[in-house]
Amino acid sequence: MSSVLRDILSGPPEDAAPRLIGAHLVSDIGDKQVRIRLTEVEAYKGSDDPASHAYRGETIRNSSMFKDPGTLYVYRSYGIHWCANTAAGPPGVGWGILMRAGEIIDGKGVVIGRRGRRDSLTDGPGKLTQALGIIGDHNGLDLLDPASVVRLEPGAAPAGLVMATPRVGISRAKDIPWRFVEATSVG
DNA sequence: AGGATGATGGACT
DNA sequence: GTCCATCATCCTA
């Protein structure tokens, strides 16, 4: 049995990332379900990528990225937010995909409660994890396990094209176009 | 609409 | 001590 997502995530992150657009990131946390359709992701390629947390090799912090594809890597960003990646590629390489933004398919009321506002709910990596209730405790779980409290599921393919642009918020390898965004509307 | 800034913790030099 | 794969808020226009 091999899932579509497992096949996608088995490859290099710059190939897998655009194919993750449209997939669903689902959480069952605190007795509530939230389902978000991914619209923005970024690829990070381990030791080949100066912008990657895994650039200098495996550490306690980034070890989830070195595990099987589909392993959830959660890290604290700027001391305040949590950000979520999925490991990609074969174990040991430290490749990953940062899940940055999406649209709420189900559980919007839950998200409004968690975010404490009604707008700008899931348009950034820190916001996305807060919307889903993902925290550091969830680091290392298997996103491809249907029984996992946080998981990836296949979703509708992108309506439009997927655009590749430079990644956001990094200071090195700024020129590599490994940010992938669904081109939703014209313009 | 867009630029500046403070919050805040862990990894790294 | 410095650097962040960020966000919300507070300015100026």
Distance between the termini: 41 Å
Helix content: 10-25%
Structural class: alpha+beta
Provide the low-confidence segments as ranges: none
Radius of gyration: 15 Å
DSSP strand tally: 8
Shape: globular
Largest sheet report: 8 strands, antiparallel
Report the total helices: 4
> What does the average pLDDT come to?
94
Secondary-structure element sequence? HHEEEEEHHEEE
Strand content: 25-35%
Description:
This protein is α+β, with helices and mostly antiparallel strands. Strands 1, 2, 3, 4, 5, 6, 7 and 8 form an eight-stranded antiparallel β-sheet that branches. A hairpin with a 2-residue loop joins strand 1 and strand 2. Helix 3 crosses helix 4. The radius of gyration is 15 Å and the shape is globular. The model has no long low-confidence stretch (mean pLDDT 94). The structure holds a DNA duplex (13 and 13 nucleotides).
